[in-house]
Structures are given as C-alpha cells and as structure tokens.
Design goal:
Layout lengths: L4 H10 L4 E4 L4 E3 H15 L7 E5 L4 H12 L3 E4 L6 H10 L4 E4 L4 H6 L5 E2 H4 L6 H9 L6 E7 L7 E6 H15 L6 E4 L8 H11 L2 E4 L8 H10 L4 E4 L1 H9 L13 E4 L6 H10 L5 E6 L9 E4 L14 E2 L3 E6 L12 E7 L5 E2 L3 H7 E3 L9 E11 L5 E6 L3 E4 L2 E4 H9 L4 E9 L4 E8 L4 H9 L10 E4 L13 H10 L1
Helix pairs in contact: 2-3, 8-9, 11-12, 14-15
Length: 501
C-alpha cells in the first residue's frame, strides 16, 4: 500500500450506504463522501503538481472532504484554525509559499479578511469527476509523498510545520486500529480540532475501518449534560479526548445524573490525565470499558507509546505512558548519551516509520531533533528526540516526568512559550518579558518589564499574535526581570516571584 486513500476506496466499496461522517448540520455516507472528494480532487488537478492546500474551513464535513480531495489531487493539505488571528494565519500561508486556499461559505469571510485568493468548497464539489486524470496522478505517487502538514507552536515566535508522509500515516493507523480493534461498528465522538495531531487517530481509523465519525459540537463541552445526551443519542462507543475534556464530566459529577450508555473505549492523550478525574469515570461507568493513556508528539504522527489501564490507581498516583507501540521503538537516553538504567531519568527518543520527515522549510530545527541514533554510528539511522523527560518504573513502564525545554502541554495543545513572548515583545517599550506556567493552578502567566503601564495593551498584542488557547490567563508588569549567574533570565525565580505577588 502506498496511499492512505486506498483504505478509503476499500471502505467505500464495502460500506457505500453507511453514514461515515456527521456534523451538526449534515451527515454523509461513504459513497456521498467519495463523490465529493473525487470532484474536489479533479478540480485541484488543474492547479499544479504536489501543491500545498491550505484549508480555511471550520471542523465540519466540508473540511473533511476538502482534506481528502487534496490527497486525490496528489497534493498535501494543511488544516487552518479559522479562529486564529489573521496575523498567524497569514504567517503560516507565507511559510507555505503561495498555497492553494480552500474555504466554504461559512468561513469565506476569513479568507476575505486576510486578502487571499481562494477556491470555494461549494463550487469545487460541482466539478465533473475525471477518474482518468485522478488515476494518472495516483500512478506518479509513492508512500513517501507528503499527506499533510500540521503546524505547532514555535519557539521563535512563528509556528513550525511537521511534515507527515502517507507511509507514516499508514503505519500508525495500522497499529492503532489493530491494537484497539476498531471496525465498522465503531462510532467515534470526535472532540479534537482537525489541525491538531490527535484528530488523525479517530478520523483515519474511520477511513480505514468504515467506522462512523461524529463531530461533537463545541458548545456541548460547556453544557456537560447535553454532552452525555449527545453521546447517547448517537450511540457513540469510542472517544479519544484530551484529559481536560474528560475532566469536565468528572468535575461536574455528571454521571451522578446521567451516564453514557454505549461507551466501550475511552482513550486520552495530549497532556497528563488527572487520576482523580479518571477514577470518577472508572468507578461510575461500566467496568468493561477499556481505558488507555496514549502518548506521543505530532512528529510521530500522533502516538509512540501507550498504556492500557490494567490495575487500580489512587487519586494521587501517576498513570504511566506505558510501552512503545508495535513497529515503534521508544528508548530513554541519559545525559551521557547512553541508555538510561531502570529508574534513571532521561530523554525519550523514537525510531519508527510513524516518524515525520521533519519540519517544512526549517532545516535548522529539523537537524536539532531528527538526529542520528546516539546509540551507534554504524550506519545512517534517523531518530526523533522528543524533548520529553521520562523514566522506567519498577514494572518496566515508561513514566512521564516533564519537558526539557520551555514547551508545555495544556488542554492537549503543545505550546511554545516563546511564541507568546514574541507577541508581547512586539509592543513598543516592552523591554523584556517571559511567559511561565503555573502547573498547580493551571495558569499561563506573562510577566514583563518596561514602560507600558497598561497590561491590557500587552495582552491585546498577544491576542493578535496567537490562537485563543495560547492567550495568557494573567499579565503582570514588574520593575526588573530576575537574571541568573550566567546573565540569563531566571525562569524559576520568575515563577517564584509571581507566586508572591
């Protein structure tokens, strides 16, 4: 197999009339999806070879069809967050060098506001399907072709694009669908945005196995009772959510009032799962439900390690990240560049066909983390340095400790604090700034030194630079930033200073 669409085509033949995808306004069968995506692909074929296709459409069936349509044309797609500031959207589009832009009538104003030419989804799906042209495109493709690029937060103030090939996507989806037994009876309730790496798992599992994929309306996560009713009304039996979303139902003790009736599999990833909140699910729902902690960066398509809960944990325990996925080797390297001993902390490295090709137009950053295997130099072997500090517990399970840099994970999003700081530094008379994360209080705090007395001015500058999930919870002005003995900003002292304010 060389192209992820081969799975889609098998699913269309096997389940043409089955509902494949649904959002708040419409649902489509696999056959209907197929007709739309081949029409889009036929239209895009006339626009050049292996182009970047930026999709400015909210999380809907329209967006899904645009994604697959780009793949049919032999292109690669980039799903954009239509709710991001225009400055950030334009920054990504500029990195991509004149990509094709697809939007729909609901999001057309976004493309208009940023002044980009675009193709309209509603017109593309009316294109006459040219199967001969699509077949010719497929013949020129191989599994190393790029399928999509996901842009994550960047330490330099600009996002960086992780390049994922068809090979990596196929390899990962083969593992996850086999490990968790997804099939045509699986009904997903999808929570994560399509520009977020976690979305790959439930979406492409649906493509491969003929599952049903329901896009849960965002507002239901604000009204938890409605959320459970939605799960029950749509007979959703599998979810893959960030811990923050799972914890909403725990914190509101929703299961004391109403319970999801069909759940069989509960997967979570993206941040540390609070054990107390997970225990609420375990103690209140069907004991036959499978719970699993999935762990991995965007650079491994989605996941490189996992742990299926097989024992009880107290509310104060930490849930392991477990073991490496099949066809994925995860190993821990200490500060001396050698394998860490059991119990010894070190950096997690990954070697696998799940692995990304690197970062788009960013050879310097690529060379920093996609490196020669440090355990040998006998032949070229590229591995990925995750930047995650982990250790093996007494059971041989990997346990997450922290990050080695200034990156954090919050609400499932990977956030480079440097990107927030770049927004603040754009304000004239801000002399110095730093963003710190108060993990215990779950607060992002921006602290700055300078002549700008009104913190709201700095906050507004950040809002215009980063998406909503990266906007600081607090902005504080101090007289002087703390400096360590090496003349560098002392972030630990800064966090301590903040807590005394």
């Amino acid at each position: 197999m060389k192209n992820i669409l081969e799975y889609f085509e098998k699913t269309v033949k096997a389940y043409p009339d089955k509902i494949g995808f649904a959002d708040a306004s419409r649902e489509v069968t696999f056959l209907e999806t197929d007709l739309h995506v081949r029409a889009i692909g036929s239209a895009l074929c006339a626009c050049g070879e292996k182009r970047a296709v930026a999709i400015l459409i909210d999380k809907t069936v329209n967006c899904i069809e645009a994604m697959l349509g780009a793949l049919y044309a032999g292109d690669y797609y980039i799903v954009m967050d239509v709710h991001s500031p225009g400055e950030r959207i334009n920054g990504i589009l500029n990195i991509l060098d004149n990509p094709l832009v697809i939007t729909d009538k609901d999001s057309e104003f976004v493309a208009t506001d940023i002044g980009k030419e675009y193709l309209l989804y509603e017109e593309l799906v009316q294109t006459k399907i040219d199967d001969e042209l699509l077949s010719q495109k497929r013949k020129t493709m191989c599994d190393l072709d790029t399928a999509y690029i996901l842009f994550t937060s960047g330490s330099t103030g600009m996002p960086k694009g992780t390049v994922i090939s068809h090979r990596a996507l196929i390899s990962y989806i083969n593992w996850v669908t086999e490990e968790f037994g997804f099939n045509e009876e699986t009904v997903f309730g999808s929570q994560t945005p399509l520009y977020f790496s976690m979305s790959v798992t439930d979406f492409y599992s649906t493509i491969k196995c003929g599952c049903t994929y329901h896009i849960i309306p965002k507002q239901h996560f604000t009204f938890p009772l409605n959320l459970v009713e939605y799960l029950n009304d749509n007979k959703i039996n599998t979810i893959y959510w960030v811990p923050t979303a799972i914890s909403i139902l725990s914190n509101w003790k929703v299961f004391d009032v109403i319970k999801p009736q069909y759940l069989k599999t509960v997967l979570f990833a993206g941040e540390v799962m609070p054990t107390k909140q997970l225990n609420y699910w375990i103690h209140h729902l069907n004991p036959a439900i499978t719970y699993a902690n999935l762990f991995g960066p965007t650079e491994t398509t989605d996941i490189c390690a996992f742990y299926v809960l097989d024992r009880d944990f107290s509310d104060s325990d930490t849930i392991p990240i477990g073991k490496a996925c099949d066809n994925c080797d995860s190993f821990v390297v200490n500060s001396e560049g050698k394998l860490s001993a059991p119990g010894e902390e070190g950096e997690l490295y990954v070697r696998s066909s799940f692995m990304a090709n690197g970062y788009y137009k960013n050879p310097e950053k690529t060379a920093e983390v996609f490196v020669q295997n440090p355990l040998h130099n006998n032949y070229p072997e590229t591995v990925y340095r995750t930047g995650d500090i982990v250790k093996q517990n007494e059971r041989g399970e990997l346990v997450y400790i922290t990050r080695k840099d200034f990156q954090i994970k919050r609400s499932g999003y990977r956030i480079e604090l440097g990107e927030i700081e770049a927004g603040a530094n754009s304000v004239e008379k801000v002399k110095s700034c730093a963003c710190v994360y108060d993990k215990k209080a779950d607060l992002l705090v921006l602290i700055y030194e300078g002549a700008v007395k009104d913190t709201a001015v700095v906050l507004e500058a950040v809002r215009n630079h980063v998406p909503a999930y990266m906007v600081p919870d607090e902005v504080i002005r101090i007289k002087e930033m703390p400096i360590n003995a090496n003349g560098k900003l002392d972030r630990k002292a800064l966090l301590a200073t903040y807590k005394t304010l």
